[in-house]
Amino acid sequence: MKSKTYYIWGVVATPIVVMMALGFSAKANAVELGAASDYNVFVLGDISQNYTDIEGKLAAGGNVNFVGGLGSRLSGNSGNVVVAGKNLTLSNGQVYHGNAVYGGSANVSSNVGFPQGTLSKGNPIDFNEAGKELRGLSQYLATLTPTGKTTVQSWGGINLSGSGTAFNVFNVAGSSVSKANSFGISGDANSTVVVNISGKDVSLQNFGFNITGTDKQKVIYNFYEATNITASGISILGSILAPLANFNFNNGQVNGNVIVASLTGNGESHNYLFNGDLPDLPSKYYTPPKPPTRTQVPEPANLPGLGLIAIVFGLFRHKRNQATCLE
């Protein structure tokens, strides 16, 4: 009878190991843009926008002053759709599919709806730590060796051609971007594209983007030196990483993440979040704070595995009792 009992244990041991592995691996997913990854607009300071739309989530470490729609392209209850580190002012609009949270005070007009969420006080994001990580990421990406070919035409055309690898880096002068009247990018279908743009003051006005091969959700424009960016009359394809910049954005749209120091204007932000594959950020540029000492029981991610172990031991004991009765 012993051999029968051990056989039963051997059969169920494999799913236990698998379940435990799944539980532990649930924490291993990489986050490319840190705390900003899930936010259509992530501002380290203040945002003030009127009569516009942010299709995804909004977070700002300072004050949020917004007139328009927020979170319209999210699905179901998406948690915290609006996060204001300080004061929150909303009027003439709606927060779709989730909550609004503020750290200071709230001034929300009666004509602002929360059809699937609530308004409450809290501080769910450490914006100080997020700023350190995003500034470090921007600085690091700027050091990467270019892999593709950059062509700047005298008439204002900019063309970036990928080298055929899965990861492409380009360097473009901000002065060229400020004079551009077209901007083309080509790369492999799965290619992540980093466009490092130099210069403290950069403008993007009245020209179009054209991306072939890869997708706008794999393209990120890294304004690693910019303290002021202006954009108007434009549809930007890809995400903006400019953690030092005040972004004045009118009459246009960004199709990707917007990560800036502050944001003003009526430009729209469309919820095409960056899903490219960036290299790991070296500790030289950012070191996460050490997690607090934990004394509680194992994390919920591992509970299914522990529950399965308990069930298996129950079966093991039951079978052993049956075997004893038959002897």
Molecular structure report:
By secondary structure, this protein is of the alpha/beta class. 21% of the residues lie in helices and 37% in strands. It contains 4 helices and 21 strands. It has helices at residues 2-25, 127-142, 174-178, 303-326, and strands at residues 41-43, 47-54, 58-60, 64-70, 80-84, 88-95, 99-102, 106-108, 119-121, 149-152, 157-161, 167-172, 182-186, 192-197, 201-205, 208-212, 219-222, 228-237, 239-255, 258-265, 268-270. The strands form 2 sheets. It has a 17-stranded parallel beta sheet that branches. Strand 10 (149-152) and strand 11 form a beta hairpin. The radius of gyration is 25 Å and the shape is globular. Mean pLDDT is 86; it is low at 1-30, 308-313 and 322-327.
Summarize the topology.
Layout: H1 2-25, E1 41-43, E2 47-54, E3 58-60, E4 64-70, E5 80-84, E6 88-95, E7 99-102, E8 106-108, E9 119-121, H2 127-142, E10 149-152, E11 157-161, E12 167-172, H3 174-178, E13 182-186, E14 192-197, E15 201-205, E16 208-212, E17 219-222, E18 228-237, E19 239-255, E20 258-265, E21 268-270, H4 303-326
Parallel strand pairs: 1-3, 1-20, 2-4, 2-20, 3-5, 4-6, 5-7, 6-8, 7-9, 11-13, 12-14, 13-16, 14-17, 15-18, 17-19, 18-19, 19-20, 19-21
Antiparallel strand pairs: 10-11
